[in-house]
Amino acid sequence: MMRVFDDATRRNITKACAAFARLPEAAAPPALKRAAVALALTADSESNDTAFLLTLRASHLRAHRGQWALPGGRCDAGETPVEAALRELDEELGLRLTGAEVLGTLDDYPTRSGYLITPVVVWAPDSAAIRPNPDEVASVHRIALATIERDDAFDFTVIPESSRRVVRFHHRMSLIHAPTAAMIYQFREVLAGRQTRVTDLEQPVFAWK
Q1: pLDDT for the residue 1
Q2: Over 70: is that where the pLDDT of 84 sits?
Q3: Closest CA to 170 of 159, 157, 160
Q4: 45-77 burial string, b = 16+ CB within 10 Å, else e?
Q5: How far, in Å, CA of 172 to CA of 130, rounded?
Q6: Cβ-based burial of 183 (10 A; exposed 0-12, middle 13-18, buried ≥19)
Q7: Reduced 3-state DSSP string for the chain
Q8: What is the pTM of this model?
């Protein structure tokens, strides 16, 4: 289903996020370091469909180099996840947004590498302002929401190292895994009005460090 990038779509997605009941904070392991990512919604470059921004991390980074990711990173001291997501959007993509563009937040996702990631859904109308920071981002891509709403967009598999299901997002010729795939999958479910949890979805072994 195409979602035209306009005020009506913004209102509909805001309502869907407001109707989503996040897991309580107390359910999260206390030892994890706080982090945040932005599900930044903007216009698709090939149509007027609403899309979200996905980055390919620079190959010289120390952690998770060359992997697909939502813009984001660790929360600074005294910083809320929303503040961290907005700061990281500015640092990685040159998108300077305010709290007025925040549409909602999804469940915190605990990673094997020791982070608790809060996905923050934001509305980014000025896509012409996107300027990827080469120190962090190799490339930035607009993924139309219709793409993640396809029946074959996600699948689940198993690995010998865990009893939990591994979620995978099929993007062109690539497979994108959790945590990124888990958060995108939950956003797809939120758009459909479903209260679907993803904290039990596993990451591949290469993402455990």
Answers
A1: 72
A2: yes
A3: 157
A4: eeeebbbbbbbbbbeeeeeeeebbbbbbbebee
A5: 22
A6: buried
A7: CCCECCHHHHHHHHHHHHHCCCCCHHHCCCCCEEEEEEEEEEECCCCCEEEEEEEEECCCCCCCCCCEECCEEECCCCCCHHHHHHHHHHHHHCCCCCHHHEEEECCCEECCCCEEEEEEEEECCCHHHCCCCCCCEEEEEEEEHHHHCCCCCEEEEEECCEEEEEEEEEECCEEEECCHHHHHHHHHHHHCCCCCCCCCCECCHHHCC
A8: 0.93
Judge contact between 69 and 174, C-beta under 8 A. Answer: no
Tokens representing residue 70 in the block: 């939502």
pLDDT at 119 over 60: yes
Nearest to residue 17, comparing CAs of 118, 124, 120, 139? 120
Task: Dump pLDDT digits (tens) for 146-168.
Answer: 999 999 999 999 999 999 999 99
* Cβ neighbours of residue 129 closer than 8 Å, sequence gap 6 or more: 94, 95, 96
Q: Higher pLDDT residue, 31 or 131?
A: 131
Asked, as a colleague might, if the bond just before 179 is cis with ω within 30 of 0, I would say yes
Phi, psi of 36 (to 5 degrees): -150, 150
pLDDT in tens, 4-33: 999 999 999 999 999 999 998 765 567 899
